[in-house]
Amino acid sequence: MRVLTANLFSDRTDPAAFVEVLISNEVDVACVQELGASLADPIASVLPHGGLFPNEATRGLGIATRHPVEIASVPIPKRPGVSALLDPAHWPGLPRPMEVINWHVMGPHTWPYFPNPNTRRAHLRQLDEWMWQHPQMPRAVLGDYNASPIWPFYRAMRSRLEDAVLLSGDPPPRTWPALGLGGLIRIDHCFVSGLTCTRARRVELPGSDHFGLLVDLKPVE
Description:
This protein has about 220 residues and is of the alpha+beta class. The protein is built from five helices and twelve strands. Helices cover about 20% and strands about 30% of the residues.
């Protein structure tokens, strides 16, 4: 299964170019952040299932999929995630149900600055509560985490889940900034449990300040 996470830079990503990214890379599941109205319909034209929730205040989020899924909101205050439950009845080759979560984590640069480390930890506890409802569920948790591997938040995620990029054995792709510098740090991630990753790479997102992260996932046998 091929899964993409892409920050669309407050809807500045070129719609036609992003559609081509989805088609040419044969994406099965697209997790998008900073989704606005101009990109929602083009994405749905390629990946017609799932749930896309555009918002003009950089908070738009969604998961678009090739086959039907069950969509739910992950209740994280101010930064809710989106969950997609994949059922083997609709996903050929999937041996058991699997969950994909898309989450845009609050950045440490978000005002007010000083409470944010505590807020990020509180948000992570909310994610824990969601995952503990079905602890054996194979899942992938993707998105813009506003945290590179040297940050405590990344390490906290890795204490719970595995970094798919590291499982793949591919060189970890630096995903931000895409504008001008060609990527200095890795802040877009895919964390997994009950899954492994056979390939990971970055893809260009014309108009965005991020590169996308594209991963090939399969259940652990």
